[in-house]
Structures
1.
Amino acid sequence: MEDVWIMDSGCSRHMTGHRKWFSSLNPVSTKEYITFRDNGQGKVLGVGSVSLFGKLSLREVAFVQNLGFNLVSVSQLLDEGFEVHFKKGACCILDAEETLVFRVDLTSVSGPARCLDASPSADIWKWHRRLGPLSIDLLVRLSSMGVIRGLPELKA
């Protein structure tokens, strides 16, 4: 899985556990941890830039200790102005001018099926269903800002 990048709609930011992917990497000044499905944690060792196969440049990628997967955050791509389209057999990433930047051929993906689960609380899933396609990260931020009446403060 070291050379495979997974498009993840539930992940709040791009992340990898493999130093080799970074073209630039800066240490973080605060202690930040990513919680895994088994409740283990990986320390964020740095943040930097990654070039995927010379075609797509990812910024603000977290270098996470003990992370066994490479994750591309769909929500982070959208926040950066890209469009992400899932079609039968492909995932296409377009820039602001709607030029194709990167295409993932989903028909060539092989290996056992996997489900990555960060297991947010039941309250977050309840509000996610009520409010539509908001990322978990955005729901947590909105709840802490108090901008939605009736939305309690949520924790991921």
Note: The two ends are 26 Å apart (CA to CA).
2.
Amino acid sequence: TLAVESISECVYKERLLDELQISNEARRLVQALSRNYTNKLKNLDSPDGPNEEQQTPWSSDFVPNKGGGQIILLHGKPGVGKTSTAECFAELSHRPLLTITCGDLGTHAYEIQQSLERWLHLGTLWNCVLLFDESDVFLESRSHGDIYRNSIVSVFLRAIEYHTGLMFLTTNRIGSFDEAILSRIHAVLHLPNLTIENRREIWDTSFRKLAEERPTIKVDFALMNYAYYDEKIRKLDWNGREIRNAFNTMIALAEWDAQHNNKYTKDGKVLVTRLHLEEVATMSGTFKEYLEELRGMTDDEHMRSQGIRGI
């Protein structure tokens, strides 16, 4: 028995792409691929039946059922919008997003092969946008002495080569990728570090979302000024995820103060002030300084010294 009383039409948020802090070139590529993908799906759902010539993805490969899919690699440091780009693509294409991580596939080559075949089959069956998050776990460079690692990489490479749908791979460790994957990628998008303006836009989006969804919370103007322009916040070099986490922690601190110290506004609202964000910024800054002292370099410099990614 399937309960259907709570089922409703899916509402897609096409405007999400406008809020994503990526370059115009990356945005254009996402829009172009989305339109192509959507047109293909519309053809499949046509009341006159699918046009066979349009239904089958064209491939320049001479081997049947090989190279018919599209694989897009998104790389960059953590928190720059890789996963969000794939999520926005799915919303723009009006398709579900099927996210797969290493925990969904197992640890042994045979187990991974079976799981991969199952997930890829479901992705094709449901016309999903597939997202392999942190795919470097399965695509690290092979070596002569590590048969276990080599078998996992080989299984993954073969599976994605014969997939006929659309797939996103994300990584923040591009330097560790096996060179064979590069020949299987159709499009590569590097998402660079966020600029000062990008960060301000993320803060602004968060403040607007809070105002729309939590009218019982009031944000002090001095706090917004501090988040947008203060040198201490700028030097923290927060990525998008860190800004989101700092924002949530700041709200939690404000709600705690309101409940336990009775710090409400005259109209009974929770007041979020500059002091709440300063507290979060101090904790974050102290931790970053500790890591730099421990390593003798910044996180970006550490990644570059290991050959994992550039600065």
Note: The chain has a mean pLDDT of 87.
